[in-house]
Amino acid sequence: MRPERPRYLLVLPGLLVSVAVAGLAITIGGWVAGLSAMLLAILLGAVLSNLTGPESAIMQRLQPGLAVAARRLLRIGVVLLGLQLALSDIVALGWPIIVGVVVIVGGTMTATIFLGRLLKVGADQSLLIAGGFAICGAAAVAGVDAVLARRKDAEAATAVALVVIFGTLMIGVMPALTGLLGLNPYTAGIWTGASTHEVAQVVAAAGIIGPDALKVAVLVKLARVLMLAPVMAIISIQQRSIAAPEPGRKRPPLVPMFVVGFSAMVALRSLGIVPEIVLSWAKTAETWLLAAAMFALGTAMHWSVLKKAGRRPVALAALATVVVVILGGAVAFAEQFLAA
Questions:
Q1: Maximum distance among all Cα pairs of the chain, rounded to whole angstroms
Q2: Local structure of residue 82 (DSSP, 8 states)
Q3: Residue 337 CA to its chain's centroid (Å)
Q4: pLDDT 10s digits, 202-237
Q5: Which tens digit of pLDDT belongs to each residue from 269-291?
Q6: What letters, b where the CB count within 10 A reaches 16 and e where it falls short, cover 8-46?
């Protein structure tokens, strides 16, 4: 009888591949202007999964490490993301935009969950889509997934796939829409940052509009990212109250530790005590960790996942995108009116 392999040996292959592909995605992203390393990493993961098949020997060998990358590396990356957020920058946006961001996140999540019920999409699937589309894309999907009492890998994979598909479409839609309406760069930037799903997708879309739009778009998007902590805490409390955990799984923590870490990093950055070189290193590490996690999440994006999920989650994602665009537009136009 062969001895059981140590845990670290089971995890190592998938973990090393995730980190290596993240490095490749970052390198290619540096060569091609406007190409997001995280988006590329997700696509590379999907390509690998669809070429080899989720049940193939390669994927089975990588799966333990991919699971670690998709959860633990992502949570560490989200914690480091907090160092990119200074409360002073968000406050400088002004109270109308700050209130607007709260309305966008809360309104999009509420509407998506309600629409999910109408479409008869599962409650957890609706919540995963709502979090991803309202806050910050795949990282928010993983955050919601981490606090669910009864989670399913297929549902998280479906939500990530939908964020990638619809968020990528937004890269073309927002410049076209704001250009068609003849909006000034500032208003166009607010609308783009308030409506586009991933930070990287915001950068790509606003970059097409222009540098003035890009500056405000990123700040508005980061204000949405800041909502990750309170929303995850609320969902975690709700999950603890509505359902017992699945067998062998502990009840979700009252406040997930990665949310506590994220909040602590925001506080540190806001105090202005973190040296610039540390911020630079943290940014590099955050990008690498999140890209590795996105690759791991991308491997769950096999065509059979979306086929099995059916049309209803896709319809829900489309409606959620419409909701966030409408709410984002309302905030952008309200800011323009108040500034006039």
A1: 78
A2: G
A3: 31
A4: 877 887 898 888 889 988 988 898 888 888 888 887
A5: 999 899 999 999 998 998 899 88
A6: eebbebbbebbbebbeebbeebeeeeeebbbbbbbbbbb
The answer to whether the Cα torsion of 166, 172, 174, 176 is positive or negative is negative
Q: What does pTM read for this prediction?
A: 0.76
d(CA 83, CA 148): 26
Report the amino acid identity of residue 24. Answer: L
Q: What is the helix (H) or strand (E) element at residue 16, kind and residue range?
A: helix 7-31
Position of tokens 């909040």?
Answer: 263
Long-range contact list for 229-234, CB < 8 A, 24+ apart? 229/259, 229/262, 229/263, 229/266, 231/105, 231/109, 231/131, 231/134, 231/135, 231/140, 232/143, 232/144, 232/146, 232/147, 232/256, 232/259, 233/259
d(CA 158, CA 180): 32
Smallest CA-to-CA distance from 229 within 311, 131, 127 is with 131
Q: How far is CA 202 from the centre of its chain?
A: 12
Rg of the chain over Cα atoms, rounded to whole angstroms, equals 19
Tell me the helix, strand and coil percentages in the chain, rounded to 5.
Answer: 80, 0, 20
What is residue 244's three-state secondary structure? coil
> Is the Cβ–Cβ distance between 140 and 255 less than 8 Å?
no
